[in-house]
């Protein structure tokens, strides 16, 4: 019998057949805290990110700038995403796509999956202004978690797209982050997953 994944947007929780399962964001959440970022700033950034994600979906679904009900303080982020899509011409196959792993018992929402220049790409949209080392490591681990949920074979580029308020953007390759800081994002993600599940009493393979 197929198990049903449900996402509660208000509480940002995933449940499978009524049982709460951790998200990729939950699992990687411990890393940014190492950077001693106040929770109020993290919460504000999360709210901004959620709104920007919704607006970027409208861009992908064909709305032009004039057709998007965009708050003035978020216009720059939307323009940045429009510039990215113009420059890179992505062909998305999944947009805000929810998945979960029955084996590892975690869930998540892929921001974008598709092809750029004919090559498979998994992309996560970010709106943080100045990501520090813990944040960049967390971003790479999140992409690794999403990649394992996607469970594809063959080469896959993992990319964070940092949208900026001034209308510009930055493409951050997870492989470059790994090389810069000397870690393996897939191994670290699953170490964090094990810690999270052990601390919550949910132990899996």
Q: Describe it for me?
A:
This protein has one domain: Lambda Exonuclease, Chain A, CATH 3.90.320. Helix content is 42%, strand content 26%. Strands 4-5-6-7-8 form a five-stranded mixed sheet, with helices on both faces. The two termini are 22 Å apart.
What is the percentage of strand-forming residues?
25-35%
E-strand count: 8
**Tally of helical runs:** 7
Q: If strands are numbered along the chain, what order do they take across the biggest sheet? A: 4-5-6-7-8
Shape: globular
> What number of structural domains do the residues give?
1
Please give the alpha-carbon distance between the first and last residues: 22 Å
Broad structural category: alpha+beta
Mean pLDDT level:
87
Explain the layout of strands and helices.
Layout: E1 5-8, E2 13-16, E3 19-21, H1 24-28, H2 30-33, H3 39-60, H4 75-88, E4 91-101, E5 106-116, E6 119-126, H5 133-150, E7 157-163, E8 169-173, H6 174-181, H7 185-200
Parallel strand pairs: 6-7
Antiparallel strand pairs: 1-2, 2-3, 4-5, 5-6, 7-8
Task: Write a concise keyword list for the protein shown above.
5-stranded mixed sheet; alpha+beta; single chain
Q: Can you give me a brief rundown of this structure?
A:
With 205 residues, this protein is α+β, with helices and mostly antiparallel strands. It has helices at residues 24-28, 30-33, 39-60, 75-88, 133-150, 174-181, 185-200, and strands at 5-8, 13-16, 19-21, 91-101, 106-116, 119-126, 157-163, 169-173.
């Amino acid at each position: 019998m197929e198990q049903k994944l449900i996402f509660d947007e208000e509480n940002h929780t995933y449940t499978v057949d009524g049982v709460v399962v951790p998200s990729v964001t939950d699992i990687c959440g411990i890393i940014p805290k190492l950077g001693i970022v106040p929770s109020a700033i993290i919460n504000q950034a999360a709210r901004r990110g959620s709104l920007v994600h919704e607006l970027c979906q409208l861009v992908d679904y064909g709305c032009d700038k004039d057709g998007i009900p965009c708050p003035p303080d978020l216009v720059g982020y939307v323009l940045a995403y429009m510039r990215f899509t113009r420059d890179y011409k992505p062909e998305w196959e999944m947009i805000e796509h929810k998945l979960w792993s029955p084996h590892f018992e975690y869930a998540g929402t892929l921001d974008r999956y598709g092809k750029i220049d004919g090559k498979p790409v998994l992309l996560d949209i970010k709106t943080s202004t100045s990501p520090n080392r813990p944040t960049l490591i967390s971003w790479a681990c999140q992409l690794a978690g999403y990649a394992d949920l996607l469970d594809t074979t063959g080469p896959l580029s993992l990319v964070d797209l940092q949208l900026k308020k001034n209308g510009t953007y930055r493409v951050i390759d997870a492989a470059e982050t790994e090389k810069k800081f000397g870690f393996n994002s897939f191994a670290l993600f699953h170490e964090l997953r094990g810690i999270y599940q052990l601390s919550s009493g949910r132990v899996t393979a």
